[in-house]
């Protein structure tokens, strides 16, 4: 016998929460970037993960097989591209904390890279998701720098991020409308 | 007995040819990019090669070892970054031909990407090296598009590249002064 859905079971189902269907922040950003690309809005890609290849096996019949390799620490951020003629550069970070974002999540050279890009006229930032409470923010490099230069704390309290960051809404498509925030940032400058 | 250099042997040595010491175009560009970065001129990186990881071995004592992986075709170009606030995007291609650059060297999606970037206000181009005759050119996406739209040929003759492209000089440091060419392109727009 087939199980057809009936009104009762549908009624009892929780409404679909588009904001949190178990997708990682990275998946959400990749889906959004594909949307922006297909609609000719922005050209933003995730860089491949750097991998150090140690040993390969050549085989005429199939593709070269990598037999030994190791993940490397990226020297820059994960995402970059162009929007409205501007250079965009950012990284995405997820934390389970409900209260703060630990600066240990950013590599020193990643922060240096974000600051360098900002100084060269690019738009650089972090997208930070507090996954437990499902809140996602865009925090500009300026505001990260300001916090670091004026605090001894090794983590940014969520109140600071709520005050100075921009909340990013989760939609069905694009998943994370972070380009809208970039529009606001461009208009502020 | 040690062999000390003497005047005669030094005299007989060929002068150092900075333009061609067996380095690949990729090595030359990477060295130039490091120079531009260290001197705070431009922030341009080569993207990591995309690799599809199939099988890994976790080990608490050492780094995760990738046991099976394969090279993937990149969806964009190899290099991007920012210079004078502008988004820069390009690929580097070497050919042994002395007479032409085959368009088979560019993947269709790479060309589409270069055109898309140009249309969004970025500066996109190819760096093409004729390694046999050691001539390196910057050819803008505009000039590549123009050739493709007005020719049925599947390779761009070197005369076209000499006429419309910009020759890039090889120096000691930076190896390839392609940023100077970008300055010229910016001033032309």
Key words describing this protein structure:
homodimer, 189 residues, alpha+beta, Trna Endonuclease, Chain: A, domain 1, six-stranded mixed beta sheet, two-stranded antiparallel sheet, 6 helices, 10 strands, disordered N terminus
Give an overview of the whole structure.
The structure is a homodimer of 189-residue chains. The first copy, chain A, has 189 residues and is an alpha+beta fold. In chain A, 32% of the residues lie in helices and 29% in strands. Chain A is built from six helices and ten strands; from the N terminus they run ααββββββαββαβαβα. In chain A, the strands form three sheets. In chain A, strands 1-4-5-7-8-10 form a six-stranded mixed β-sheet, sandwiched between helices. The A-B interface holds A 40, 42-43, 45, 47-51, 53, 63-71, 74-76, 80-87, 89, 113, 116-117, 120-122 and B 40, 42-43, 45, 47-51, 53, 63-71, 74-76, 80-87, 89, 113, 116-117, 120-122. β3 (65-71) of chain A pairs antiparallel with β3 of chain B, so a sheet runs across the interface.
Provide a quick synopsis of the model.
The structure is a homodimer of 189-residue chains. Chain A is an alpha+beta fold and 189 residues long. Chain A contains six helices and ten strands.
User: CATH topology of chain A, what is it called?
Assistant: Trna Endonuclease, Chain: A, domain 1
Q: Biggest interface and its residues per chain?
A: A-B, 37 and 37 residues
Residue runs with pLDDT of under 50 for 5 or more positions of chain A: 1-20
What is the chains' assembly state?
Answer: homodimer
Strand content of chain A: 25-35%
Overall mean pLDDT of chain A: 88
The DSSP helix count of chain A reads 6
Query: What does the largest sheet of chain A look like?
Result: 6 strands, mixed
Q: Could you estimate the helical fraction of the residues of chain A in percent?
A: 25-40%
Q: CATH architecture of chain A, please?
A: 3-Layer(aba) Sandwich
């Amino acid at each position: 016998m087939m199980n057809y859905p009936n009104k009762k079971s549908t009624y009892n189902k929780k409404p679909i929460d588009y904001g949190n269907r178990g997708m990682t922040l990275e998946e959400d950003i990749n889906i959004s970037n594909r949307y922006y690309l297909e609609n000719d809005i922005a050209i933003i890609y995730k860089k491949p993960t750097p991998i150090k290849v140690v040993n390969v096996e050549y085989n005429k019949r199939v593709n070269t097989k990598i037999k030994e390799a190791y993940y490397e620490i990226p020297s820059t951020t994960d995402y970059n591209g162009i929007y409205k003629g501007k250079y965009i550069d950012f990284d995405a970070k997820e934390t389970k904390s409900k209260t703060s974002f630990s600066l240990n999540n950013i590599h020193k050279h990643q922060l240096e890279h974000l600051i360098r890009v900002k100084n060269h006229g690019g738009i650089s930032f972090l997208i930070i998701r507090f996954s437990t409470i499902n809140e996602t923010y865009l925090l500009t490099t300026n505001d990260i720098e300001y916090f670091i230069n004026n605090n001894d704390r090794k983590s940014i309290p969520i109140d600071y991020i709520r005050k100075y960051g921009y909340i990013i809404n989760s939609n069905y498509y694009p998943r994370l409308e972070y380009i809208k925030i970039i529009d606001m940032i461009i208009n502020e400058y």
